[in-house]
Amino acid sequence: MRNPDWSTLPTDLVVRISSLLIADDASDFVRLRAVCRPWRSSTVETKSRADCFCPRNWIMLSDPNSSPIDVCFFNTSTHKSFSFDLTPYLDTYSLLRSLDYLFLLKHKITQGFALLNPFMKSITPLPSKIEPNCANVNAPKRLEDLIVYLSGVFVTSSSTIVLRFILDFLVWTKPGDLSWLYDELNLGSYSYSKLLFYKDRLLAVTYDDKRLVQIDLANEIPNQLQVEVVFLINELPPTLRKEWYLDLVDCDGEIILVTFKTFPHRCCESLETYKLDLNEKTYVRSPNLDNHSIFLGIYRTFSISCEDLPQVPTNSIYLCALYWGDSDTECYNLKTKHMTYQYCEPFLNPSSLVEKLIKCCLRSYWNIVSEDDE
């Protein structure tokens, strides 16, 4: 039997396959376009696809045997890996921050900011000026003044770039705009969980009234952020406040809410997980993570598929240095309801995959600063 000529696949079939790939992982979409000229001409150029800008489920791993400019990425769903050499870019740019799978750069001559996507090898220029949209007279005017507080970046399907800062405000812009828009987060509650970027929405759970709230980023963002209440989570304890910890995580498309008591001591018996359904506006307590584990950090949380990954215990939640001034990491097994002590301090040279995943949750690692700026 002769080998089939895959380049002769019908165009509509190639387009359909490519749309499924881009919905799962942009790096596979790039590989598809590299197979042959007909497949490449049948699909859309990556630089014109907004959803290609942020590959999904990729995190940057720490490798003690590599230099800071030789970066390894790991996919928490497929377990694929990808290496990227920053060297060709550092003649022109200084590296300011690493943000999950993107790099914030500063041009050495013009002093302009840019985002580098290592998967697409594309650089998107960013404005430096900020236009405040709130009544705060002390609102920042320049992006440069905020870099040290930067904690996350989101890119929506409409190409809007959103930066989130630990001081509870956002700035957003579109490629080609001359300035950022700025607004402070007002979720109707003094305390709330970390923001989760999920399908063009920012989600959070408030402590005071146990509401799941969202900011819709799918369309053109107005001058002021619009917060909507999705539904109430009545099963949560009546008093959350400071002694409770809440976190939202995207677990391969399912939203998981993790809650547990932290004061006066860590209370394993109080740890619960809930699956949230935005469409049905329902939630259900679920002690099963469907062959996944979750890594929780103060600034960063992610899930990982444990299928064919025996070195990561399944159905477990890692509490990675969650408390100010505390570097302990513990692992809670949802099936056995048992907490095990893991490590006493952040890793300088992590060796195992679990150690590298834990270090990904530590701000001191993933918000790296280039040697030129130290």
Automatic annotation (TrEMBL):
Annotated Gene3D superfamilies: 1.20.1280.50
Protein name per the record: F-box SKIP23-like protein (DUF295)
Stored SUPFAM superfamilies: F-box domain
Cited Pfam families: Beta-prop_KIB1-4
Secretion signal, residue range per the UniProt entry: none
Domain of life: Eukaryota
InterPro entries: F-box-like_dom_sf, KIB1-4_b-propeller
Residues in KIB1-4 beta-propeller domain copies: 73-331
